[in-house]
Amino acid sequence: MTDQPKIPAQAQDKMPADEHKMTPRPDYAPRHPGVGKLKGKVALVTGGDSGIGRAVSVLFAREGAKVAIAYLDEDTDAQETAKLVEDEGSEALLIPGDLGGKAHCEEVAATVVGHFGQLDIVVNNAAQQWIDEDFANFPEEKLRRIIASNIYGPMFMTQAALPHLGDGASIINTTSVNAYKGNDSLITYSTTRGATLAFTRSMAQTLAERGIRVNAVAPGPIWTPFIPGSMPPEKVEDFGQKQLMGRAGQPWEVATAYLFLASSDGNYYTGQCLHPNGGAIVGA
Question: Which residue ranges are recorded for the region named Disordered (predicted)?
Fold first, then answer.
């Protein structure tokens, strides 16, 4: 069982929250040398500024991909991730803006292709969550915002990317363990992640004849900016200890699932979901 620093009580009044304000900092760093699994590829990672998206961006760069990072407005985190990508000997492109709007998603896809000349991998990872134990009084504005981020965003981004994707391309959507088991304090978030799962399976059927694979990753409790950004301090303290493995996961431990699905290692996977969740037993 991997040791990790204790997580103290903390909170940020912001969603998405900032990784550079977290204690301890999430662990994004790849553990193994790259072998060129994504050499010559261009990947777009939404929400790539921090958390799982940062870990995916850095790992993809280590494996040879050039990485476009779409994010809302977390400039400090995004600039740090871009430097980490460049430190791996790759190239990063930062594209800020609200992915909940179709026009911006179309602009993102056009910018990526205009800059790199191609697009091979789309990781729809950007999302938001809030605690909503009192669902009857959950604000309409927050409900509309989470639907725009977590449902419209991946759908609009996929629409925008499809004209640029060819045979062998890969789309990977971030869902959640909560899409499978539900969560009485994350009702809206869990519902949107269920939509992501259905979207993944449906698009896999639609795009198989074009040679485009569509899969998902359903993380469990991972130490990312989601946690201090959405949970009260007392719930953040020692986050993840109730898992079978007795701890929260780190972003680098999730990023390897995305690499598997993005590379030729995952060539016979489409419409599937991988489960880095620390031991929770859920349906496939």
Answer: 1-34
> Is 189 an active-site residue?
yes
Q: What's this model's pTM, rounded to 2 decimal places?
A: 0.95
28, 189, 258, 268: the active-site residue:
189
- Mean pLDDT for the chain? 94
Query: Strand pairing partners for 173?
Result: 124, 216
- Tell me the CATH class for 36-274: alpha beta
Whether residue 192 contacts residue 150, with contact meaning beta carbons closer than 8 Å, is answered with yes
